[in-house]
TrEMBL record:
The lineage of its organism: Eukaryota, Viridiplantae, Streptophyta, Embryophyta, Tracheophyta. It comes from Paspalum notatum var. saurae. The keyword Transport does not apply. The keyword Transmembrane applies. This is NPF family transporter. Pfam families: PTR2. SUPFAM superfamilies: MFS general substrate transporter. It is found in: Membrane. The chain crosses the membrane at residues 115-135, 155-173, 194-213, 219-240, 343-364, 376-399, 420-440, 471-490, 502-523, 548-567. One of its GO terms (molecular function) is transmembrane transporter activity. It is a multi-pass membrane protein.
Amino acid sequence: MPALNSFLASQKQKVPAPDNEQYTFNGSVDVRGKPASKKHTGKWRACYSILGGEFCCSMAYYGVGTNLVTYLTKVQKLSNVAAASNDNLWQGTCYLTPLLGAFLADSYWGRHRTIVVSLVVITMGMILLALSAIVPARIDSVVISLHDTLPSLGLFLTALGFGGIFPCIPTFGADQFDETDGVEKEQKQLYYNWYYFAVNSGSFIASTVLVWVQDNYSWGLGFGIPTMFSAAGVAGFLACMKLYRYQKPGGSALTRICQVVAAATRKVNVDVPTDSSLLCEMPGEESAIIGSRKLMHTDGLKFFDRAATITASNNATSIDETIDPWKLCTVTQVEELKILARMLPVFLTGIIFNTAQASFPLFIEQGQVMDNHIDRFWIPPASLTTFNCLCILILAPAYKKVVVPVASRITGMKQGLSDMQRIGIGMVFAMLSMVSAALVEMVRLDIANNSGLVNRSTMVPMSILWQAPQYMFVGVAKVFGVVGFIEFAYEQSPDAMRSLCQACSLIMVTLASYFVSVILKIINSVTVGKGSHGWIPDNLNQGHLDQLFWLMAGLQLMNLIAFAYCATRYKRKLAT
């Protein structure tokens, strides 16, 4: 044991403790790699450019995704099936590549470099998309090749670039606030709301202004405008480098996880000491993992504690020898894996929660058989998603002044609601959106039956504005739930795995879309046949879309109960 302790002590870097009045205590550094100054770096002054960058990225993402099917069919002359397939492939890839971006950010590049590189890649992709809309379809063989290649390459680059943006911008913004400082920690909770406001501001403008430009003026300009915004985002992140606080990348998180599993498996027959102080850990305040604070030992998942249990062979290590991390890990490294294991059930509840947004295509199909005329105006069914966006744009900035004071009186907490409570409330509203959609559909089907329209594939004399509540409920659910998941992923994740945990939260969005697709296929195969049109026939007046919405509402309720169980048993991170 003395030899091992001497070795560990020799590995500890002698870094003077920063002055509490001048420097941050969360391990952040400035652009020169020195301890970050509280006065001259971080906080809201640094976040303005980050939020502006997120707005630019949101403009680019929704500027492509909102109208991509129309572009592929009208400009690239693809079939409806091919266009829809390519759109789904692009959307899915955008939410899978964050695993790669998060890995690079946490392990090697750091969040700022990952963001800048990703924005450059997005800008290149947007340039190619803009050129693909300008290049004529047929002039000669070279141009034909360009016309076919540019959009595919442009979509690939944008999807790859968003993989570094989605997990890194929310975490990089949160890095600007020192969570060991009570005042800054309170401001960080407000940042999450403004981050989501920036996301939806870009979405709103892209879904209205950019879509109009693309459909009525020019696709080249429609893609060119978000290209300029993404380039401005690159300039903004580079110009404000001196204002930012940076977290050092901690090396490969995947390698550290594998080391813990391997070391624990090697010692499957070794007894874990009851005194946690006997487990392996670096002496002093420094962690063995770069960019991470020490994590205190927690009870539970004791199998992994074997990885930090010192055996006779470990104790024989001399000062001149190197400890093999595949045989012996520190408590902090073991706790990283424990935290991920505890976070996983909470993340999994995000799959059902996100099915509310994934059900928007069903909402639109429902709106197509409702009266979408108001006076002399015709309202496209898809335009009602604006209610969702407007609800977020109003509620997100008003959260602190309206929700927090009311919630504080109830919970007794200064911040109003914890991250878990926000997620739970979001799940309640996600369930209400499904209930609202089911009730609207029940009334619509009753009107169709009374009007003799059951066997006619036509709209029913019921105003489409009755759909507004279900869209608004989803908007409220996202302000509470999505922001709650973002906060949870940052606050509870290990310091050196924050981008990776944010990416895991984003993956739940993709899994929710896949889940809804599977449910629809199962429902269709089970309900169609024996004289039945099924729940979702081509003529919805003959179907039972209301029963599908009731099923989804029931799943949301069961998911809420499962989340409540996970939340009550969850052990929060203990960092020094």
